[in-house]
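Look at one such:
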Amino acid sequence: MSPSKKLALSLTAAAGALASAGAAHAQAFYLQEQAARAAGRAFSGEAADTGAASLWWNPAAIGGQERAEATVSASVILPKGKVNDRNSLIRRPGGTFAPVGGDATSEDPINNGVLPSGAVAVPLTDRIAVGLAVTSPYSFTTDYNGDSWARYSADRTYLRTFDIQPSVGVAVTDWLRVGGAANIEHAEASLTNALPNLSAALPDGSQKLAGGGWDVGWSAGFQMHNDWATVGVSYKSAIKHNLKGDLTVSGLLGPLAANNREINGVDASFYTPAQVIVGGRFRVTPALTLNAQTIRYTWEKFDAIRLGAPVNAALPENYRSTWSYAGGLDYAVSPRLTLRGGVQRALTPTRDGERDARVPDANRWNYALGASFDVTPSFSLDLAGNYVDFADTTIDRTTAAYAGTAAQTPVLVNGTLTDARALVFSAGGRVRF
């Protein structure tokens, strides 16, 4: 077997982290905190709302806009949780299954973070407007201690995506708005994880995979308006990400030492999911508006991570397509002050038996409160707070280092995610000019 093929078989398990940055706050590694106004009602009416703050969810939101508008938001994300060992086992060549060892509880492996976003919309005529949104929809960092029980499947993972969305919205009639956009995304990722040497008495080796690249998707949508209701429908396409980077292996000893090397120009590809978004806003009284939204995520597109030459391997991911559901309200206390709140339920695309420590994801509830205050006729301040409660779940994906070779070393992962939750605080401003 060639050295490149051996390397492919031993490193496949690490490749998945190119697209997996730990549990986020919408589903899997997707972050939805793209506007503070939306966060305040648990993202329950964005496809049907208007203005630059809703541009990420529906480019039709700016059709027929009368004034130019800009919005900037930032969300501070503070996750907590424990990833626990429940007798995970490893079998080195010639031996029997033995405990994987290491720290049996990894607390708070997902790093705190700040997620910025912004958008601007400018009317060209009384019916046509153009806009630009800049977001970071798939971004996070997970960091396990070097002696964690999860070290063979996850050590440190870093993922950042930057989405630039030029958009156009058109008010076709007084009641119908349509819009379209391109989604130009840059993704960059790096990860490390441990590799077992042939003897438990030897220190672990390590590997690092890092890369980046630019790719393009698209969005389209429409909104229907009358005096008391707005319904919005939009579609955000899946995006195939193509990353080029480097793979470094070090610290392997004895017969495995030949695999210590650096390979430049490794290609990797994976898909992030399409979203089908349906939202509605319903004015019950002059002060009270009810919101609802559901999203279908085609996570089945994230079926595998594929590595090109010289590795030529694939890692099955087998995510499933899932849904999120949200309801909320806006209540105008006065002409200048609006209070809002909402609840969202989101289902994880990860499957039992295939969930690893890189993406310790679970079904979750998101509870939100928020407010907007018109500081001046042209400037509004948005504030929001969210509490995200994750269900306890299993970490149970079996892996094998050096699969298919005489050095094959299976790792039977048996762990749990417990006490997982997150606080998210968002603030933003909207300027009309």
